Amino acid sequence: MSIIKNTAEKIARKLLNKQLKKHAKRVEFHNMQSAKHIGILFDTKQKENNSIVSKFYTDLKKQGYKVSAAGWHEGIETPKKPLNTLDFIYFSELDSNWKGIPQTHEISEFFKQKFDILFVLTQSEELAIQYISSLSPAAFKVGARGINTEYLDFMIELKENTSIKNLIQDSITYLSEIKKN
Q1: How far is CA 33 from CA 28, 74, 164, in A?
Q2: Which domains does the chain have, with CATH numbers?
Q3: Sheet harboring 88-91: ordered strands across?
Q4: Residues 110, 133: contact at Cβ < 8 Å?
Q5: Share of the chain above pLDDT 90, in %
Q6: pLDDT tens, residue by residue, 70-107
Q7: I want to staple 122 with a disulfide (CB 3.0 to 4.6 A). Which of 8, 10, 43, 73 is the partner?
Q8: Confidence (pTM)
Q9: CA–CA separation, 140 and 145 (whole Å)
Q10: How far apart are CA 155 and CA 97, in angstroms?
Q11: CB-based contacts of 84, cutoff 8 Å, min separation 6
């Protein structure tokens, strides 16, 4: 990482932490029975993630949920959008300003949505992903225990080298079994 980029990222992280201190988050528990609107935030570093998330997206749609998905990718080439995934958007470092904040209209619209549940299916340390997952107005954020867990409301403990397929299965299992009063 260049000195300029490294300095810009440090400044951006300080600005994000400052925003987080002002950000009053009200957690509202949702399980799979109470949720109506679901968001999925993932990365495409492993090629299979795109197809795994596509299947998850399609299954949720078939069950009657309103679903949107945003996928982080590295580099210039945008991943191929899976079939039947109209609400899939992709973003990269190129779509972010110097502070690491995603700037495209599509990702801004995704970020503003008040999901009942936001599935954070990545442990990426990318600033753009941290920005979205930490400041999203989603009522209930679910993801893997580990990096960035301070932004999550419900964490799933995963074994090492576990794919997001396991994270999805475990999340759905727990959110289906837990009752909401």
Answers
A1: 14, 35, 22
A2: 3-177 (3.40.50.1220)
A3: 88-91, 66-72, 37-43, 117-121, 140-144, 154-156
A4: no
A5: 33
A6: 998 887 777 766 666 666 888 888 888 877 778 888 88
A7: 43
A8: 0.86
A9: 15
A10: 30
A11: 54, 58, 61
